[in-house]
Specification:
Layout (H helix, E strand, L loop, with lengths): L6 E4 L16 E4 L1 H8 L25 E4 L4 E4 L2 H10 L5 H27 L2 H12 L4 H11 L4 H5 L2 H12 L13 E2 L8 E2 L7
Antiparallel strand pairs: 1-2, 3-4, 5-6
Helix pairs in contact: 3-4, 3-5, 3-7
Length: 204
């Protein structure tokens, strides 16, 4: 999955429920290929008539799917996750799997670069990297990396002490930013036990 939505999809197909054709809650942003070549009119349901596709306006996809970011593939946790993988071909499309693999490398490198800027007092460089990460089209990859960082022995899972330390600081600073969009001036202590202070925009 990525965030390059171009089409408006009737989540429950018009052919199945014509009265929902103009229902606002039945319109979801979708990429053109998913909408036209994969989902089309598919709408699998369980024995109780409940839809077995993840609805991102209601469901957290990570409740139903686990992303293995280094491999670029999803593993289903639930039946809804399995049906979503099947209908949308999320593990069958080269551009999605390779895109996630590339995004994993990019996110790891940028996170480490962000933390080096923080430690070095380069607030401009840190902020540019924040925006780079927040604009990443494969946003699910960054989310998966962040979830890995919260697990015990994160450094072993991530394969890098430096990346684990960068992620700890990233998560502690609310993903690098404050609600106003400005970089935090103080980064809480990392694994090294030191506190790093960044120059604020008012100081520059």
């Amino acid at each position: 999955m990525n965030s390059t939505g171009t089409d408006i999809d009737h989540f429950e197909p018009k052919s199945r429920r014509p009265l929902r054709t103009f229902c606002w809650h039945n319109h979801l942003l979708a990429c053109s290929r998913c909408n036209s070549n994969y989902k089309r009119t598919e709408y699998p349901c369980d024995d109780f008539g409940q839809c077995l596709l993840i609805d991102p306006s209601v469901d957290d996809p990570f409740d139903h799917l686990t992303l293995l970011p280094a491999s670029g593939e999803y593993k289903a946790k639930t039946r809804k996750g399995r049906e979503t993988l099947r209908v949308f071909g999320l593990n069958d499309r080269f551009e999605l799997v390779s895109g996630r693999q590339d995004a994993y490398v990019k996110c790891c490198d940028v996170l480490i670069g962000w933390h080096r800027c923080v430690v070095g007092g380069d607030s401009g460089g840190a902020e540019r990297r924040v925006h780079t990460l927040h604009r990443e089209p494969f946003a699910d990859v960054l989310r998966a990396i962040e979830d890995m960082a919260r697990l015990p022995h994160a450094a072993l899972l991530l394969g890098s002490d430096e990346l684990a330390t960068a992620l700890e600081a990233w998560l502690t600073t609310s993903r690098g930013t404050v609600p106003e969009g400005r970089l935090l001036t103080t980064v809480p202590p990392s694994r090294s036990g030191t506190s790093v202070v960044l120059p604020s925009r008012a100081d520059s």
